[in-house]
Amino acid sequence: MSLLEHYKVLGVGVGAGLAEVTASYKRLCRIHHPDISSDPESEEMMKRINAAYTTLREKLRREAAFRERQVYVRQPKRPGGAESRPQSPDARKTNQDAEKEAYSVLQDYFKAIDTFDYAAAYNYLSSYDKRHITRDSFVEWRKSVARLYPMREFRITGGLPAAAIAWGEGKTVQARRFRVAVKEESFDDDKTYTGDVEKLVIQENGSWRVFLAYMGVGELTQAFEERFESKRKHDIERQWDEYYAGTYPEYDMLSLAGMHKAASREIYRQRRFGGTMTFAAISIKPRGRQDAGQEQLLRSAAKTIRGALRESDVSAYAGDGVFALLLVELRKKNAARIISRLIERIRKNAGPQLGTLAEIEYEFETFGSNSPMDMAALNKVLRSFQKKM
Fold this sequence. Notes:
By secondary structure, the chain is of the alpha+beta class. It is about 50% helix and about 20% strand.
């Protein structure tokens, strides 16, 4: 069972903390425990719930231990271990002003992420983070995270008192730790998940900066890569099942109904994140009556198309020898060349019989920021071959 499925079994979002995971586990136990439930499948369900809870609990504990190794936080004490004296009104006011300033910096940081201005978000990071992570690396990382788990909204729910924080360079600075509730969308089931994250804001040269405390790009991407790999495997496993509505099993491709759903997803992504897309239709039109040789030709063409596409691209069989292709992140200047090469490969694999059995035609359209993709534009390409999604 993949990590994402464990989250789904417990009914929590991928950003859920240990407290939320434990609470959901206890709630499900009160529903599905065999001693309580009369459902004959309750025992099997409890096995899945226990496995999911054990896996996520250990994962969250490892992540907590990892964070503690990166950032050691201790409350400031007076020399000799005595308790701190109560603050004077002036000191309290200064402390409140500092907290407001730290809060404001964190608010601006998340606003920049929410509006996809990742370069601006990078400017709010501490000098420690900037020494270990370049602006370009940070921007690319945030783009990757946004494509998989786009942030819908955020809310800073509370902060802890100021603390002295030290890390491996032997420095100690004042810091504030804030809790942030983040809502993320999921492309798996069109739902929104809420999870709490903690962020540190430290004081540098009289100003506050967001402190990630990562030693480099590898640590920055570690958690994301784990989520991405889990989602990628999960998508592959169910791509041909319920995720796309309809397949063409004879050609191991989506049907037009499946292409409609896949295209709808990519249209949403393009509008939110930009990028270029190319939609193409290739027609292998039989000459005369269709026979076994022509059927073999179409199967060969389908195999060639599947083998030539990248994992992010989508192909479908529309019937009557028409294949539809959605090529992700492909610009117009490359589209014609790639489609021409694909047709050459289809001809080569089909052999000399192609000329007597069928003729090949194609149409394509490329969409970018100036001409966003929509379903009407895709159907315009298909209309050339009397097809419609």
